[in-house]
Amino acid sequence: MAGQSLFVSNKLLMARKTRKPLGCIGVFLLFILALILIPVLEVLYVRFFNPPVTTLMIVRQLEAFVSKRYRGGMNYHWIPLNQVPDDFLDGVWQMEDSRFFNHDGFDWIEMEEAIQRAKKRNQPVRGVSTISNQCARSLFLWQGRSWVRKGLEAYFTFLMEHLLTKQRILELYVNTIELGDGIYGIEEAAQHYYRVPARQLNRSSCAMLAAMLPFPRGWDPHNPSPRLRIRYSLVLRRMNAGGSIERKLDEP
Questions:
Q1: How many CB atoms are located within 10 Å of the residue 3 CB?
Q2: Which residue has the higher pLDDT, 15 or 165?
Q3: What is the 3-state secondary structure (H, E, C) of the chain?
Q4: Which pTM does this prediction carry?
Q5: 114 and 126 in contact (C-beta within 8 Å)?
Q6: What is the percent of the chain with per-residue pLDDT over 70, rounded to a whole number?
């Protein structure tokens, strides 16, 4: 009887030992599944609903609280894409991602050119973020150069390009892009800097706001630095040389 009891006890002990690895594997698989599905749900949400807040806004609030360098804030006002001036859309399209309507979220041509430039100058590769990349970063992620962030950005970009239209990506982009300290989106920028609704911005103001995108918290459109003036002139030249974005927006 004692021997039988010992045999049963050994079997129970062995069963517990065999269950532990399965439990760890199960937790790991659940983690991977969540990592895959949560971004899908987030992208599906912004397909149908305008985001009330973005990850970048929250991160900026925390930065302001910790460093006191910036005031932070969440000044953000959503407007539909048809109320965004074509001149501003032209500016960001020509400066940030001129192949936006022709690629799948990743501009392989620009990447190759950037790699070649970096090799010649013996510098890190820079300047290859598409509008879709930037939009994914603003909506769901944080700023930085870590491989984790870059990997997540690539995944979110892939999802956005397959679950959203180009028009919706552009609408999300111009409404959530950072355009100053605590200022997000073209409507809020127009109200803050020029005291008019976005639809009343003139071509010059649109070009200036588009020029600010690389350093929105450090540049002032009313007191432009030499570098901002150069970018402003470049934006205007590209807007004049490139085609209008209006035709592209009408394409399916």
A1: 7
A2: 165
A3: CHHHHHHHHHHHHHHHHHHHHHHHHHHHHHHHHHHHHHHHHHHHHHHHCCCCCCHHHHHHHHHHHHHCCCCCCCEECCCCHHHCCHHHHHHHHHHHCCCCCCCCCCCHHHHHHHHHHHHHHCCCCCCCCCHHHHHHHHHHCCCCCCHHHHHHHHHHHHHHHHHCCHHHHHHHHHHHCECCCCEECHHHHHHHHHCCCHHHCCHHHHHHHHHCCCCCCCCCCCCCCHHHHHHHHHHHHHHHHCCCHHHHHHCC
A4: 0.83
A5: yes
A6: 85
CA–CA distance, 105 with 165 (Å, rounded to integer) = 11
**What phi-psi label fits residue 80: left (phi over 0), alpha (psi between -120 and 50 degrees) or beta?**
beta
Q: Please report, for residues 89, 108, 132, 171, 174, the alpha-carbon distance to residue 39 in angstroms, rounded to integers and kept in the order given.
A: 27, 24, 15, 19, 21
How many CA atoms are closer than 13 Å to the CA of 192, on its beta-carbon side?
A: 20
Helix axes 2-48, 166-176, angle to 10 degrees: 90
**Structure tokens belonging to residue 118:** 């970096």
What gap in Å lies between CA 195 and CA 29, rounded to an integer? 52
> Under CATH, to which class is 32-250 assigned?
mainly alpha
13-27, 81-95, 110-124 — most confident range: 81-95
Radius of gyration of the chain, Cα coordinates, nearest whole angstrom: 24
Task: Indicate the residue type of 4.
Answer: Q
Report the share of the chain in percent with pLDDT over 90. 54
Rounded distance between C-alpha atoms, residue 176 and residue 77, angstroms: 9
Give dist(CA 113, CA 121) in Å, integer: 12
